[in-house]
Amino acid sequence: MRPRRRRGQPDATPGLRGDLGDRAELGIRGDRDGDLAGLGETGDLRDPGSVPTIEVTGLTRSFLTGGTQVDALVDVDLRVDRGEFVAVMGSSGSGKSTLMNILGCLDTPTAGRYVLDGTDVATLRGAAQARVRNRTIGFVFQSFNLVPRTSAVTNVELPLMYAGVPRRQRRRLALEALAMVGLSDRADHTPTQLSGGQQQRVAVARAVVSEPALLLADEPTGNLDSRSTHDVLRVLAELHDEGRTVVVITHEHDVAGWAGRTVVMHDGRVVSDEAQVPRRPAAWEPVDPATAAPRRRLVAPAAGEPDARVPHEAPGTVGIGPGGPP
Ligand SMILES: Nc1ncnc2c1ncn2[C@@H]1O[C@H](COP(=O)(O)OP(=O)(O)OP(=O)(O)O)[C@@H](O)[C@H]1O
Ligand SMILES: [Mg+2]
User: Which key words tag this protein in UniProt (predicted)?
Assistant: First the structure.
């Protein structure tokens, strides 16, 4: 069984949730231990008592195209608590991406209220909207959206670059994120040198490298075969297990089954919203041994045990030369 960190246990892991030092200094969203304190240890990280990550009320989005009005979202209410893993389903054109774009602060609603992690963002525009987006949200798209001819590790560094993180720290954090998705040994590969599933895992690493409060994925497995789908879902599920809030749009019931709740949309409205027992494979075996090991460990190794975590700026670490990354 994968070791789980228990409440109160210090995080010695150089992982995404650790390293408060770097992130706090740099103004990046910090370690969420404080947020998670007081939650159960049973794996149910949902915490209805705290500020919800997402709270939308009366959300409406209409488009006027060529004199025709399309009501893509109609009076949507949705609350997602911190630590939930929610799947959004619905037929094509039902408004899923429109909702996701608003939740991700890529678009603003025609009417309604959106409070993101305690901040009212429905009316934000321009730079203020971008700031909230960069600090609070990680995106994963169906088409990966990696920068071509650019290494995996540099792709993952991008959000940190925008946040003004110094080069060496940026590289270290990006390598940790790649280790977490099982791609330490692909850090120097460009997107065309990676499989679809690997590209999407790089995209997931990029989405979470700056510790966003919310991970949004719009059909993240839509372009993947079943094996890569499993790889990506496993990473998303692990991120959720660590306490992140994850919202995934999907057309596939198997994918939605990994979540703890499914919201179904139809004609711009939420028509069903039900909690479920997640259906995940009993054994979480790495399906790609060539790239899955070493995976990031959630706890530090015991005394005398070799440390399989990603090397930190060790001589010969992929991509770190004397001059550092670009
Ligand atoms: N920018 C836009 N301008 C005009 N109409 C739009 C725009 N974006 C979305 N729509 C319309 O809003 C409705 C909802 O679209 P949306 O992309 O949210 O659907 P979806 O549920 O994501 O569908 P799919 O499963 O095919 O991705 C559709 O009728 C679409 O044509
Ligand atoms: Mg869509």
Answer: ATP-binding, Nucleotide-binding, Transport
CA distance 58 to 114: 9
Q: Are 324 and 171 in contact (CB under 8 A)?
A: yes
CATH code assigned to 20-30+83-105+126-278+285-292: 3.40.50.300
Q: Is the distance from CB of 11 to CB of 18 less than 8 angstroms?
A: yes
The residue nearest atom 2 of ligand 1, judged by CA position, is: 63
Domain spans of the chain, in order of start? 20-30+83-105+126-278+285-292
What pLDDT score was predicted for residue 21? 40
70 C-beta closer than 6 A to ligand 1: yes
With a 6 Å cutoff on the Cβ, whether 92 touches ligand 1 is: yes
Please tell me if the CB atom of residue 95 comes closer than 6 angstroms to any atom of ligand 1. yes
Rounded to whole angstroms, the Cα distance separating 233 from 160 reads 24
Whole-number pLDDT of residue 48: 52
**Cβ pair 209, 134 in contact under 8 A:** no
What whole-number distance in Å separates Cα of residue 200 and Cα of residue 21? 29
**In what order do the strands lie in the sheet containing 111-116?**
68-80, 54-65, 111-116, 119-120
Q: Please tell me the predicted confidence (pLDDT) of residue 179.
A: 94
Listed as ranges, residues in the chain with pLDDT below 70 are 1-49, 282-326
Residue 276 CA, ligand 1 centroid: distance in Å:
27
The pTM of the full predicted model, rounded to 2 decimals, is: 0.76
Of the candidates 234, 236, 298, the residue with the CA atom closest to the CA atom of residue 33: 298
Question: pLDDT value at position 272?
Answer: 97
